[in-house]
Write the C-alpha cells for this entry.
Amino acid sequence: MADNQTELLAAAVRAEIDVELAKYPADQRQSAVMAALRLAQEAHGGWLPRELMDAVAAYIGMPAIAVYEVATFYSMYELKPVGRHKICVCTNISCLLRGSEEVVSHLAERLGIGLGETTPDGRITLKEVECLGACANAPVAQVGRDYIEELTPAKVDRLLEGME
C-alpha cells in the first residue's frame, strides 16, 4: 500500500480491519469490505472521501470501483461530511403508515433543514433511509447505533434536547 494510503488508514484501523479479514478465507478478503468501510468511516469523522475508499480497496486487495459500488449502494455509508449526530429516519411503508411523514416534518421544522442536509453548526444531519428493520415499532429512527422506536413529535423533541 502506498504511503499516503497508509496515512489514511491509521494503524489502529488497519488492526481492526485485520480482525475482520481473519473471519474469511484468504481468497475471500473482499467479504470484509463492509466492515472495513464502516471502520474507516468511523475513524474519519463519519464519512468516506474517495481517497479513503481507495485506501480500503488497496488494503483489502480489491478494485476501487468495487468498493465504490458498496459505498454508494448502502445507506449507512456517507460520501460527504455529516453532522456530529446523524438522524436516519425510516420512510418505508410501515413507518410511513404509522407517521414517519409527521416525524420528518417535525424534525425538519425544528432543525431548519431538509432530508440530506446538515444544520449550519454541523451538529445534526437528517437522513431518509428505506428500512431499519423495526417495522413492528414504527415509525423508527437510528441515531448512531441506537434505534428510537414509536417516534412522535414529543419523542423527537426529547431526542433533540439530549444532543449536544
Observations:
- Strands lie at 85-90, 117-118, 124-129, 141-143, 146-148.
- The two ends are 38 Å apart (CA to CA).
